[in-house]
Design goal:
The chain is mainly α and 66 residues long. Helices cover 62% and strands 0% of the residues. The protein has one domain.
């Protein structure tokens, strides 16, 4: 049995989707827009880093599968 970690293709897909979401949020609500200037941009950046670390740490990069 495995340890339940995702394969590298799933990890890459999740990183792509996270990056796409982050770019859209920054464009519409990030630095210089809404939420009093840089407030939302900093919050989005911190959340992006936390989610990215979770994806990177929860992916088995040696397993070529979903």
């Amino acid at each position: 049995m495995g340890d339940g970690r995702r394969g590298c293709l799933a990890g890459l897909l999740e990183m792509f989707l996270l990056n796409t979401l982050f770019d859209w949020l920054q464009k519409n609500f990030g630095f210089g827009r809404g939420c009093s200037g840089c407030g939302c941009g900093i919050i989005f950046l911190i959340l992006f880093i936390l989610f990215a670390c979770g994806i990177i740490g929860g992916t088995d990069w040696t397993k070529f599968s979903f």
